[in-house]
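ZP: hey, is the flavin-adenine dinucleotide complex queued? I don't see it on the tracker
AM: it wasn't, my bad. submitting now with these inputs:
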Amino acid sequence: MKKVLFNELYYRIILFLVGIILLVDVSCASFNPSSYKSIEDCVGATGVFVISKNDPGYNDARVGERVRFQQYPRMITYPTNTTQVQQLVLCSNTFKITPSPRNGGHSYTGTSSLNDSLVIDISNLNSVDIDTVSQTAIVGGGIRLGPLYIQLAQKNFTFISGICPTTGLTGVISSGGFGLQSRKYGTTGDLVFEAQIVMADGSILTSNSIINADLFWAIRGGGATYGIITQWKLQLIPAWQTVSVFTIEYPYDPNLFSSVLKSFTNFGHIAPDDLSTTLFVTNTNFKIVGHYLGNNDQIYEQLSNASLLTYNGSPIKGCDRESIEQNFLLRCDHLGARAYFLDPNKTCKRYDYLNIGTSPYASNNFTYTIQNVTYPPAATAPGVVTQGVLSVYSPGPLQAREDVKTKSMYFDGPLNDTAINVIIGLLKQMPSGSFAELLSYGGLLPTQSTNLTAFFHRNVAYHLLIQAPSTSDPTTNAWINQWDSNVRPFSNGQSYQGFEDPDLPNFPQQYFGNNLQRLQNIKSKYDPQQLFSSQSTLNTTPASKQTSSLFGTCPFVHDETVPARRSFGNKMFNLIIWDKIMINLWVIVIFLIW
Ligand SMILES: Cc1cc2nc3c(=O)[nH]c(=O)nc-3n(C[C@H](O)[C@H](O)[C@H](O)COP(=O)(O)OP(=O)(O)OC[C@H]3O[C@@H](n4cnc5c(N)ncnc54)[C@H](O)[C@@H]3O)c2cc1C
């Protein structure tokens, strides 16, 4: 009797579990995009929050942090889970509307908000689950760097990536990702174990060094065009107890600058791996900013031995040991050191600079009221967005949107005298609101293979970033364009894919070097119909003038590798459903036999 009862209970539990499996599957499978008349209906059926062209928040929602290329997507959606991302991709695919995945909205050419596209903003997929034993974290693909650093710090960990807290982790990893600690630990993409990706056919792939390893290689530095990444598994770094940071401001004298520039490029790339240095120049000042992992008592000696504190053999005024120690050097905790680079007053205390909410950007020239609180315009920046309503607000300082033009180039070694003279000539004419930033590479990177991941720029010494206000002023435009004509010939010709520049004559090659062909093959394998746009990496038309179409003649994949053009919406959907039904039938049969 007891045994019969036990058996009955046992079967009931099994039936209950099978029921749950069926229920879960049916809830995914019951979404049939081809049963809707339009993309609007299809998206509406997913239940996600949507902003369309006539909605009041549209202008604010469509614009990211860079506003040079204004684009007008059809709808902006905010899914809250991976199933909704799948459904949105299926809608895109069925109605042939390009999906624009968006994370931090920092794309220089607005590729996360393309014209007439369906923006899939995954900011809500921002969970951070830390495993302190394995020193790993599973994080949502929508997390931004600031919130990531803050949450990791609560468990005494950190991660290697960029400074700007509003930048999206997924966008950075897709670019490769270089941070102030990369000289010691490698790129952001080097410190990733696994990704979960929603593919063009709505399926979810796991990708790591064993499963779909080619895709895993590509998504770390190979551009963002293979699918929508909804989750990452990261290798965490135990947080440093102390980080030494410093800013050495020099008197503004072009002759002195020439000497410092020369010494800097002889030193930065061969400095100890713990030390990351950047030379930063505007039209009114120039300085070296440094970040050392630990408590560095040797900064003065290191900079002095590199001739960065002397000019013509004599000490530079204000750069003696005491001044360096007392006026320029700060010892911070690791989070404070990140805040230091954001704080104009150069303290390590303004952690709130890292505390970015879901709508972190503000336009420059208007105040706005949300939840009865009036916010002023964001800090001044060269560009202005004239319209906008901030629809959601989360605490944290707002970052100004910027309308700027940039140039990115890499150098393989120290600059020679001719290059220095050309650079000084251009710096002397620098328009206001512009800057030049020379960042030291070297350290671990040149010891790694240039095809470790798709991020190619490892065997380099410096990265130069030039930024100017984007304007119709011919003098400013001519100035920034001269960096291409006059300075790029001294570089190795490469350019960072994270700083997209539509002016580059051959940018796929310049972004990906010898990794390009392999990336093209992987793209054609995983997204043969080119649902996801490759404009960020391949199209030579400025993004503002591009029109997106699912089956456009994007040159990313060579024509011969592109399968015949056809609609696969219905067929693909049926395949997904049959797949699920067959799996469920098998589960039931196995249980019954058992
Ligand atoms: C102010 C500023 C500071 C920066 N600092 C650094 C730095 O220190 N180090 C560094 O390495 N780089 C830096 N960058 C460059 C940065 O890495 C790239 O601009 C990056 O692409 C931005 O990512 P995002 O998610 O913020 O932008 P987004 O515009 O949201 O995305 C960028 C690209 O990734 C795609 N994408 C976004 N989310 C997904 C997803 N989930 N799945 C698939 N594709 C997706 C978008 O469609 C778009 O093509 C900086 C850029 C700016 C503007």
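AM: back. Residues 243-330+402-508 form a domain with the Vanillyl-alcohol Oxidase; Chain A, domain 3 fold (CATH 3.40.462.20).
ZP: great, adding it to the tracker
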